[in-house]
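QUALITY CONTROL LOG
STEP: pairwise intake check
CHECKER ROLE: data steward
CRITERIA: each record must contain a sequence immediately followed by its structure tokens, with no blank fields

ENTRY 1 OF 2
RESULT FIELD BELOW
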Amino acid sequence: MSTRARAVFVAGAGTEIGKTYVTASLTRALRRRGSDVSTLKPLASGVPPFGDPSFRESDTAILLEAQGLPVTPETVEACSPWRFLAPLGPDLAAAREVRSLRLCDLVGWCEDRLQGADPETILVFEGVGGLMSPVTAEATGLEWLKALALPTILVSGSYLGAISHALTAAETLRCHGQTLLGVVVCESLGAPTSPETVAAAIARHVLAPVHCIARDGECPEALVRLV
């Protein structure tokens, strides 16, 4: 009987809040502890063509480099098989390229990795956009996550309004029976309050551990131990 690999899903309370930064930082920290890690972002938009100089700044390239992997056409395809050029929600970006994506295909791809990975490997899946962002014409990121039923790390920013967004996402996960492993508040540049202040406010309303990370900081050790 096949068994699933150990895995975690990194979801966002919103978009452009540092989700990839947290995922990459977590990946590097797990590798430093001697863990085998496979970090995947199956679905990505706003990705320039491979070979474009700006590709090195894409989420996919950042995650490959965090794993110590070369950025090649093969590794890019293995990490992010669905890539779209427009910096829009995946459903809109796909439509602009006259392409389509079904939730069953996305979930099936992820399940193949979960079933086929070495039992000693930790899989880290990064979502796209915010938790309720559409990932296909019919499905949201929440439906993707529910289909995989993986423990979730929720990433929040520290911008004005981040507390409400994070608590709304955490409550959504709770109402849908999903496991919230922890919350990470990633520093938003120019925010009126510190990440620590935002994290303390969120921690008063959720049962999961809440951590902070600076834009140029390392992944909190407590979060690495949790994963």
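ENTRY 2 OF 2
RESULT FIELD BELOW
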Amino acid sequence: MIGLATLSLFLLAVLALFLSPGPNMAFVLSHGVAHGPRGGFAAALGISAADLVHTLFAATGVTALVAAWPPSFDVLRYAGALYLAWLAVQALRSGGGLRIGAQARPAGFGRIVRMALLNNLVNPKALLFFMVFLPQFVDPARGSVPLQLVQLGAVLSMAALAFNTLLGSCSGQVGRWLHSRPGAARFQSGLLATVMLGLALRLVFLDRPSPR
């Protein structure tokens, strides 16, 4: 089991990470504005689910195997960039189709969850982050290392869900306010497309980790 002191330090480090602007924050904020609090929560749920998957990959050694193959970084980032660019095109094509509240698409919630999940899973930096970050808080003397990794990842996932849900709710209120303004739907879809394209470019220009 993880010690209380280690867990407290871990939560402080996680909070500092959450407060630093990054792709997950941008994803939640943009979908909250475009789809309302429900869309923000869906994005938060997808990101937390991806965190659990990354944790399992790290705990079972899958991440280490992927990292051991140098081209994997490029394969993941280019696949992720293409996916995000496709989402940007879809947002632009929808025009005023990004609506919230009673006018939202029935399948919108599940679709946003899947988009957030895939966006996180195809990010090679996220993959490497879990491989490097979680082990820093593991003490082999306290028992199974994989079990401790899973425990830490579960805590991180729950904390991410709480933080991103709050973030999505706040941005969702902004989206509701915008929705009452003329031309808001076009602005919301444009904002979403811009964020997705920005995240795609970020992946394209990521520096490949230096070999050790």
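INTAKE CHECK: passed for both entries
DESCRIPTIVE NOTE, ENTRY 2: The CA atoms of residues 190 and 202 lie 18 Å apart.
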